[in-house]
């Protein structure tokens, strides 16, 4: 279980960032954070501003504690996945004086532990510390609650911002510990840890770690120097310590999102198995508050089959009589159906005939809302009672009059019960609606609803309302059905899977109707929404049932959005279905126990665990259906008017439960109303009446299948049903829907429970081809046999299905409809299985041509102009808004004006651009290279097939996200971007990575997941700064690249769902690996799979080190040759030679410990024989080179260079950190030729400073601000070391010689006393960095290369610059810290 804890310092901007980068909270939680529980602090949202999107996140439940006093203050929230949702929760449970109802704690009980998400008050500024009392009271209340939980035998986890550091080493050395806190603050935390029985999980896992902090003063740029504190904690009961798999301070979150770093805690703990998690009061209140009023007001979801007037106006054929006497088509005593809500599919014009149940226009306060709902329920009950009385009276009158009414012409005659007249086909049926919160509550009593919906007299269907996230997922998936159906035929054919009998991938025209004709009116896309492959299935079982155990076939290149959309909605439907199956089993167990008068034995109870059986199943199947418009259903002539073929498709679902979405109708890519109110799902009830079921768009429908009917002994009944396609309306209207068939394992044996016969349930058991003890696989095969029979030969008049199959079908048909219903023998017996041919009218207008551009191509887009007018440096244009602009231009790329946008100073405007979510976007503007200030470019989920050359000329581009496009290759020029830091090209069609990838020397993060890679090239191992590599879902990748241990910065590696057979031993030597995700893969080492599933990194690396694949002799030889080649290449490319280390030369720098918290990284070297007097132009080249490297290093923020005349120094040197008042030196003289500042005030300040300080005057570092008055650039350098979180005087990093002479105050200025000049013969080079040692070495290497080239040119190409290494020694011990540059 992964718990993610973060002080976000205001949730609103965090949400904007999440939506920008990750689209939704659900995707961020699940795919990015991979978190089971998310705990945020300092959300700063009052309860009144909470929204449904925040509270009801798909797949998660949330619990909030908001400040009730101050607005925009404090606040904590906890989100938990459904499977680990708490059984109890409390908001602000701690009683602490001075901080009541401030929103500082959420307590959630997850069964295996109790979690407290806390935000401890800040004591306030010193010296007053106005809130110290409140802080101490809160910590005391927290300690008391923890003690109570421990006394009750519970394990506890406390996460959050505790606003106090536990010990001195949790605070940077530059911050004074004394006075930082009142002594009682760390004492209170120590009491919580020691006497309170809690342990600091991070410190337990990292006992010797230092300089790891979780908060920095962003106002003083402290994060850049890692000058911070660790005050965000994950504390666990000591009894829970063995379950701590990992605990890390997450350092790779975007720094601008918060001044805090998150903490991620991974526990080997899971909630108790069993029934779905019940709703606690806090979550029920949230659901009630944010429930959709339209969902609460639904009175019914079913309506009767509509009548259609026969040609000629009569009730029967030829307009004749409807009964035996040939009389009229209706009875004067027929009851008018009660008016109900129109169906979700109905058009406004049609639906207007039925008065809808009024829904409130806006949400009312909770008490009024409850009262309104109660009144509505009472009114509905009264109406139902009146209806039953009228119905009974009507039947008596009909019986007396001996009238035999006919159903509508378009429906088959309903069956009659013995001794009773047939019911009218036009009577309305009230549907059963279950609120989501009741379904997922395992203790709820749903007996009445299950009997009404699934029982002997029910319709075999009910719906679940208010499912969080369902409407959004439905809206996301269903339009993709039409998109896939519109793909070229050869593309669709490539996604067919004949070996599975077309139960995987695309199926069109493969399914035979009973007449033998192919059903071409619809197309289906099948997939298992829960898994892609079946390596864990017995090979014999998989071979016997390929329709269930064949791997999914996804159109990742042609329609990349289909796979995640099917999986997301399919998983949600299964999860809710499992909760419903739990209630079904509970109902059946109760009924059987009551019937037999004895409790069920263990074996019987196990057989009735419907939810457990379905949860373990690997056979669930999702079906995305698209009914083609009438004009495009090739070869799909409809049946004869009024013939049986017009109503084909009656069937029973043969699985356990079927989850259904309501249909969506589209035309030309737009959602349109249903063109025909007669279209939709029809059910034949127990009395033989045909009823139309209209599932509301916001509900999930569930139908009982034959398996559950068998296993319940007939207590739950499946009903025959079929789907009627639209037969009227405008042309070009298609219908899309989605069904998920929840089915047991093929080996599961189907038995009716003992005791069912006592209830008489077996008398009407809808069992089809079942016989006791048959496996589900055998039962399914018997049901589907003949479904893919070849079409009838021309002129043939016989049925091609086996006689035995039709015998069973006829038996079922007689049982339900007096032999008149035509039962379709189907492979899945889906709820939407058989479509009828739509009829297109000759009067239908032709399809409309594409809309012409409404604006001149290349014209300025309003969004770009608005950004220019407002001097905004960010441009975001996504989804429909981007589609609209491209359609208006009739273009596939943004206008060139995007690249020419300038700010008021004539500088390229945009630093951030997002253009996402538009399949119409096929290209980026060719002139994009003009965006010289662009730092981030996001172009996701578009139709990009190539990248323009101009993109590779962006000098400052750091982040490039091209996820979800159609790229097939990555150009070499892409990796020439000098500052490329993050590259995401996942979900494309890339088959290989070029060797030029190695040129991306600044690349930190590379995501190539969900592509078609056949290998990970060895060039990846030559990326010196790569810290994150994601290559999951590339089936062709069978091995990790050789030399992966050379990735010294690699901290995260993901390569799941690939074809890996082994993991190299060298991976265990990767020095910084923290996240390793390699499961699932088809490893030969099965124990490795088990170790990976445990999720313990240390154990995994140990196993890989011992049992991983050793390098082959060829690989070892190749690695040695490559290493030698790299050394030789580097040596050949050098413009200088490196002398041997001379320990007696005094070329040493003694590094003091204090610089670690100031500017810790330093390299030095001595350049021999530069002799500026003898080499014309070399001095100017040295100064210019220093300036250019400073520019490239972010104005000294990354690395600062100093040069000194070696003859003016006394060796050895000291590198130390001193207070500014202790540093006295003569700074470099000002440049007399430098232009004065443009700003008049700055110019005046600079002039005053020049007058105040005479040339050659010694100053202290404390006087530097005055010395640089008016010089903004130098003052900015000074701010790098002046700004500290502590109010104590800052320390300056100083390089001094043996006499105490100051050489430099880094990164600000060097000393005039050691300045290089024309007389310099030997020169000392110093390069310091506050970022990393690698940054300092890189800048120093660039300087040596550049000056070496200039030296060789000045020496007429006949000599190389000679460089002597300088040793870095630890002050006091003399231990060698490093030597640079390394020898050849």
Note down, in words, how this protein is organized.
- The structure is a single chain.
- The chain has about 1400 residues and is α/β, with parallel strands linked by helices.
- Helix content is about 25%, strand content about 15%.
- It contains 32 helices and 50 strands.
- Strands 38, 39, 40, 41, 42, 45, 46, 47, 48, 49 and 50 form an eleven-stranded mixed sheet that branches.
- A hairpin with a 4-residue loop joins strand 6 (about 105-110) and strand 7 (about 115-120).
- The two termini are about 50 Å apart.
Question: Spans of 5+ residues with little confidence (pLDDT < 50)?
Answer: 292-370, 397-429, 633-648, 760-768, 786-858, 1284-1288
Main sheet makeup: 11 strands, mixed
Beta strand %? 15-25%
Terminal CA distance: 50 Å
Total DSSP E strands: 50
Overall geometry comes to globular
User: Mean pLDDT, as a whole number?
Assistant: 77
Q: What share of residues is helical?
A: 25-40%
Structural class: alpha/beta
Helical stretch tally = 32
Radius of gyration: 37 Å
Map the helices and strands.
Blueprint: E1 2-7, H1 11-22, H2 25-32, E2 37-41, H3 52-55, E3 60-65, E4 76-81, E5 88-91, E6 105-109, E7 114-119, H4 132-151, E8 156-161, H5 184-193, E9 198-200, H6 201-205, E10 215-216, E11 228-229, E12 232-237, E13 244-249, E14 263-267, H7 281-290, H8 293-296, E15 302-304, H9 348-351, H10 366-401, E16 433-435, H11 436-439, H12 447-454, E17 461-465, H13 470-485, H14 489-493, E18 505-508, E19 522-527, H15 539-544, H16 546-549, H17 562-596, H18 602-607, H19 610-615, E20 621-627, E21 657-660, E22 664-667, E23 670-672, E24 680-684, E25 690-693, E26 700-704, H20 706-711, E27 721-724, E28 734-742, H21 776-784, H22 803-817, H23 862-869, E29 874-878, H24 879-889, E30 912-916, E31 936-938, E32 959-961, E33 982-984, E34 1005-1007, E35 1028-1030, E36 1052-1054, E37 1075-1077, H25 1086-1094, H26 1097-1107, H27 1113-1133, E38 1136-1138, E39 1148-1151, E40 1161-1168, H28 1178-1192, E41 1200-1205, E42 1213-1218, E43 1224-1225, H29 1240-1252, E44 1259-1260, H30 1264-1267, H31 1272-1282, E45 1292-1296, E46 1302-1306, E47 1309-1310, E48 1323-1329, H32 1333-1354, ...
Parallel strand pairs: 1-2, 7-8, 16-17, 29-30, 30-31, 31-32, 32-33, 33-34, 34-35, 35-36, 36-37, 38-49, 39-42, 39-49
Antiparallel strand pairs: 1-14, 2-4, 3-4, 5-6, 6-7, 8-12, 9-12, 10-11, 13-14, 15-25, 17-26, 18-19, 19-20, 20-28, 21-26, 21-28, 22-23, 22-28, 24-25, 24-27, 40-48, 40-49, 41-48, 42-45, 43-44, 45-46, 46-47, 49-50
């Amino acid at each position: 279980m992964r718990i993610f804890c973060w002080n976000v310092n205001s949730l609103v901007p965090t949400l904007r960032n999440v939506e920008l980068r990750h689209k939704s909270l659900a995707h961020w939680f699940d795919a990015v954070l991979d978190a089971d529980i998310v705990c945020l602090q300092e959300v700063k949202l009052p309860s009144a501003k909470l929204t449904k999107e925040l509270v009801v996140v798909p797949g998660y439940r949330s619990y909030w504690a908001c400040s009730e006093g101050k607005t925009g203050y404090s606040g904590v929230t906890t989100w938990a996945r459904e499977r680990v949702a708490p059984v109890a929760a409390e908001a602000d449970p701690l009683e602490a004086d001075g901080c009541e109802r401030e929103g500082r704690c959420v307590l959630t009980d997850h069964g295996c532990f109790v979690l407290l998400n806390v935000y401890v008050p800040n004591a306030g500024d010193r010296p007053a510390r106005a809130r110290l009392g409140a802080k101490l009271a809160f910590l005391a209340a927290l300690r008391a609650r923890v003690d109570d939980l421990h006394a009750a035998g519970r394990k506890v986890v406390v996460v959050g911002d505790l606003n106090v550091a536990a010990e001195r080493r949790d605070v940077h050395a530059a911050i004074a510990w004394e006075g930082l806190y009142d002594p009682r603050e760390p004492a209170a935390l120590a009491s919580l840890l020691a006497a309170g029985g809690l342990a600091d999980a991070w410190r337990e896992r990292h006992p010797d770690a230092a300089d790891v902090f979780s908060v920095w003063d962003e106002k003083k740029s402290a994060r850049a120097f890692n000058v911070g504190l660790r005050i965000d904690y994950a504390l666990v009961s000591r009894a829970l310590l063995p379950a701590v798999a990992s605990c890390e301070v997450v350092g790779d979150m975007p720094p601008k999102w918060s001044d805090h770093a998150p903490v991620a805690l991974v526990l080997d703990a899971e909630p108790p198995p069993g029934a779905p998690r019940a709703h606690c009061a806090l979550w029920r209140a949230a659901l009630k508050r944010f429930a959709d009023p339209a969902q609460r007001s639904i009175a019914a979801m079913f309506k009767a089959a509509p009548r259609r007037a026969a040609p000629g106006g009569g009730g029967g054929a030829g307009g004749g009589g409807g009964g035996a006497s040939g009389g009229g088509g209706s009875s004067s005593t027929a009851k008018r159906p009660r008016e109900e809500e129109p169906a979700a599919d109905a058009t406004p014009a049609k639906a207007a005939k039925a008065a809808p149940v009024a829904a409130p226009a806006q949400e009312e306060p909770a008490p009024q809302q409850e009262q309104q709902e109660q009144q509505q329920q009472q009114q509905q009950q009264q109406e139902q009672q009146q209806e039953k009385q009228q119905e009974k009276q009507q039947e008596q009158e009909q019986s007396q009059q001996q009238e035999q009414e006919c159903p509508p012409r378009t429906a088959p005659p309903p069956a009659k019960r013995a001794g009773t007249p047939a019911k009218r086909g036009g009577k309305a049926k009230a549907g059963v609606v279950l609120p989501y919160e009741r379904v997922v509550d395992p203790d709820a009593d749903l007996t009445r609803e299950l009997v009404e919906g699934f029982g002997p007299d029910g319709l075999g269907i009910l719906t679940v309302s208010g499912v969080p996230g369902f409407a959004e997922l439905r809206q996301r998936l269903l339009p993709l059905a039409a998109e896939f159906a519109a793909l070229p035929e050869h593309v669709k054919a490539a996604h067919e899977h004949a070996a599975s009998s077309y139960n995987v991938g695309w199926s069109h025209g493969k399914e035979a109707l009973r007449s033998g004709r192919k059903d071409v009116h619809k197309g289906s896309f099948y997939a298992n929404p829960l898994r892609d492959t079946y390596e864990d299935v017995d090979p014999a079982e998989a071979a016997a049932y390929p329709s269930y155990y064949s791997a999914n076939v996804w159109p990742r290149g042609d329609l990349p959005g289909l796979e995640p959309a099917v999986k997301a909605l399919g998983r949600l439907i299964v999860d809710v279905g499992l909760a419903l199956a739990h209630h079904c089993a509970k109902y059946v167990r109760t009924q059987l126990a009551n019937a037999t008068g004895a409790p069920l034995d263990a074996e019987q109870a196990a057989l009735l665990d419907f939810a457990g059986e379905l949860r373990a199943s690997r056979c669930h199947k999702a079906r995305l259906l698209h009914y083609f418009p009438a004009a495009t259903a090739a070869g799909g002539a409809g049946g004869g008017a009024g013939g049986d073929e017009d109503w084909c498709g009656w069937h029973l679902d043969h699985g356990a439960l079927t989850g259904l979405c309501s249909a969506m109708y589209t035309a030309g890519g737009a959602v349109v109303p249903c063109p025909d109110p007669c279209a939709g799902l029809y059910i034949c009830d127990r009395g033989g009446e045909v009823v139309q079921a209209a599932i509301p768009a916001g509900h999930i429908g569930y139908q009982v299948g034959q398996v559950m009917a068998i296993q319940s002994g007939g207590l739950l009944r499946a009903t025959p049903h079929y789907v009627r396609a639209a037969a009227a309306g405008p042309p070009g209207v298609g219908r899309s829907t989605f069904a998920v068939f929840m089915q047991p394992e093929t080996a599961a044996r189907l038995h009716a429970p003992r005791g069912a016969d006592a209830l008489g349930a077996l008398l009407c058991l809808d069992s089809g081809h079942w016989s006791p003890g048959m496996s589900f696989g055998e039962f399914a095969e018997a049901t589907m046999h003949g479904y893919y029979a070849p079409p009838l030969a021309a002129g043939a008049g016989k049925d091609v299905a086996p006689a035995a199959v039709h015998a069973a079908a006829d038996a079922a048909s007689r049982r339900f409809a007096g032999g008149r219903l035509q039962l379709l023998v189907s492979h899945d017996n889906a709820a939407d299985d058989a479509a009828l041919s739509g009829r297109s009218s000759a009067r239908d207008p032709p399809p409309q041509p594409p809309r012409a551009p409404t604006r001149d191509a290349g014209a300025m887009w309003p969004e770009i102009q608005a950004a220019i007018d407002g001097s905004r440096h960010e441009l975001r244009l996504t989804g429909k808004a981007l589609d609209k602009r491209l359609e208006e231009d009739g273009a596939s790329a943004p206008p060139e004006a995007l690249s020419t946008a300038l700010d008021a100073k004539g500088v390229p405007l945009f630093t951030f651009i997002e253009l996402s979510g538009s399949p119409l976007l096929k290209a980026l503007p060719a002139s994009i290279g003009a965006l010289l200030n662009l730092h981030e470019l996001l172009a996701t989920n578009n139709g990009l097939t190539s990248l323009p050359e101009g993109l590779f000329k962006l000098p400052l581009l750091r982040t490039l996200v091209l996820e979800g496009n159609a790229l097939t290759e990555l150009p070499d020029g892409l990796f020439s971007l000098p500052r490329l830091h993050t590259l995401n090209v996942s979900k494309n069609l890339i088959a290989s990575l070029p060797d030029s990838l190695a040129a991306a020397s600044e690349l930190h993060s590379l995501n190539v997941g969900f592509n078609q890679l056949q290998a990970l090239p060895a060039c990846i191992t030559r990326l010196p700064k790569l810290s994150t590599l994601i290559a999951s879902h590339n089936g062709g990748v069978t091995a990790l690249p050789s030399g992966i241990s050379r990735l010294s910065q690699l901290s995260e590696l993901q390569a799941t769902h690939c074809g890996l057979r082994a993991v190299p031993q060298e991976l265990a030597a990767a020095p910084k690996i923290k996240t390793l995700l390699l499961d699932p893969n088809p490893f030969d080492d099965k124990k490795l799979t088990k170790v990976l599933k445990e999720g313990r990194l240390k154990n995994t690396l140990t196993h890989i080190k011992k049992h991983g694949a050793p390098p082959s002799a060829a690989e070892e030889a190749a690695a040695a040759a490559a290493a030698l080649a790299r050394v030789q290449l580097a040596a050949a490319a050098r413009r200088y030679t490196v002398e041997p280390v001379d320990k007696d030369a005094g070329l040493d720098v003694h590094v003091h410990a204090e610089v670690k918290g100031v500017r810790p990284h330093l390299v030095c070297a001595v350049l021999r024989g530069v002799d500026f007097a003898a080499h014309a132009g070399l001095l100017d080249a040295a100064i210019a080179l220093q300036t250019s490297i400073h520019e490239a290093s972010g104005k000294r923020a990354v690395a600062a260079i100093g040069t000194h005349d070696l003859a003016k120094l006394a060796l050895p040197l000291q590198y130390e950190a001193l207070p500014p008042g202790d540093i006295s030196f003569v700074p470099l003289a000002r440049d007399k030729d430098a232009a004065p500042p443009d700003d008049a005030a700055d110019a005046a300040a600079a002039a005053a400073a020049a007058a105040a300080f005479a040339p050659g005057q010694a100053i202290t570092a404390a006087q530097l601000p005055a010395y640089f008055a008016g010089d903004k650039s130098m003052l900015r350098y000074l701010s790098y070391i002046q700004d500290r979180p502590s109010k104590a005087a800052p320390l300056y990093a100083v390089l001094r010689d043996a006499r105490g002479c100051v050489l430099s105050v880094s990164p600000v200025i060097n000393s005039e006393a050691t300045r290089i000049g024309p007389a310099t013969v030997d020169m000392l080079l110093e390069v310091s960095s506050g970022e990393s040692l690698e940054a300092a070495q890189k800048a120093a290497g660039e300087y040596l290369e550049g000056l070496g080239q200039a030296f060789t040119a000045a020496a007429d190409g006949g000599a190389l610059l000679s460089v002597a290494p300088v040793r870095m020694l630890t002050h006091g011990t003399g231990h060698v810290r490093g030597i640079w540059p390394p020898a050849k």
